[in-house]
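Worked example 4.2. Below are the chains of a multi-component assembly; read each line carefully before continuing.
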Amino acid sequence: MLNYPSAPFLVAIRLTNRCNLTCKHCIVSSSCSAGGELTTQEWLSLFAELRRIKVFRLNLTGGEPLFRKDFPVLLENIADSHFTVSINTNGTLLKRPLVLSIKSMLENNLKLRHIQIGLDGSSPRTHDALRGKGTFERVRKAVDNLRSEGIPFRFFCVVTRLNIADIPQVVHRCMEWGGLSVELCPLVMTGRAGEYKNHLALQARERKQLLETVISLNRDFPSFITGSFLYWAKILESAEIPVPVRGGKLQACSAGVTVAGIMADGSVIPCDAMPDVKAGNIKEKGFSEVWHNSPVLREIRSLPDISLEQIPLCKDCSRRDVCNAGCRASAYYSYGAFKYPDPFCWIANPDAGIKRAGRSAGGSL
Amino acid sequence: MRYYRQNPEVVYRQEGEDAFLFHPGEDRLYLLNQVACYIWEWCKEPLSEEIIIGKLEEVFPEVGKESLGKDVKSFIGSLLKRNLLIVNNA
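Applying the procedure described above to all two chains together yields the following structure tokens:
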């Protein structure tokens, strides 16, 4: 087998860059007016190719994927094939007629893994501060609609300075509302999130405090919390508890190996969290051709060969042997290059703030 | 006599000598080794355990029938448990 499979297992599809909200932590700066996206026919052609090369799973995201008027047509097409699908949404457009339409597809042939809804606060005070006035209430109604029809859903929550104190309550709210789980996500500092990073990014002491919270919540509700903070919690605990040695190399992450993304304009990206790391465009070349021949993807696939001894901010770290330097997308958007540690690391990135040590984001790898 | 064949819902993707099986209804992915790939491919048509063992004997004559039989039984059992194969009763 090659060092990457013949096709990704999962492709994240950014159906649109448009969104009815303008969330502060949005990594693609979505708004109502963004344009230049693939047509219905172009998406259907892409789905046909992904079906032919046997991609297994799709994740429909945006922008707000439900903002597209042809969303039911696209979902119907996906339902007619082998794909399993998840849908990432802010929840505000999950009104009853759409929920009933999804339910009807589910009763026929739609293989829905879950609908994933953004919930950034346990109350309007925190949630609306990040996502806009009235959005918490609209999410609550969406949850009611999904629950009444028995459609599986889970939550995701981007942790920032505006909601860090509320995280235990958010987790409780997600349980109370019947979610399958909640993914606690780090802020990726690009798009609008990059513009607001001084207000949103956690300081080192807050990052450590968050991990202590995550450790405690994970102890109380095993398996309910997902996301990369569980990894960082293990690194934090590694000072006292022995953890398996990871070889001290850069993270062998799924980006460009088992996962890929397609932007609304047809650009192929290594993962959903790298919106401007463009490997090619399906309007110029087929997805397969980009997948096998893109120098960008080739370089990303080679990152796990790099020892942390070669990373200046990691080479002298006492936890180097149990760490893999975290998320490559987060490193890229904070330092301008992949060969840096994840800025979430409180050791490599102490409270002095984040320095752009490399080239600007969107530049060379 | 029990005959086994591929569950038509399952997606098979060859990767070099190995392969992935993906069961969309259960959203589960499995990796098959080379020998398992042979058996999977043969089960496009309904086959009995005896026929599968016979075919494997042709490919691996150096391995004893008893050992092949044990492996085939165990492999078929695990595919059935995961709804990857279905049974046709003759």
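Take a moment to check your reading of the output against the notes. The longest helix of chain B spans residues 65-81. The interface with chain A takes residues 9, 11, 13-18, 20, 22, 24-25, 27, 29 of chain B (CB under 8 Å).
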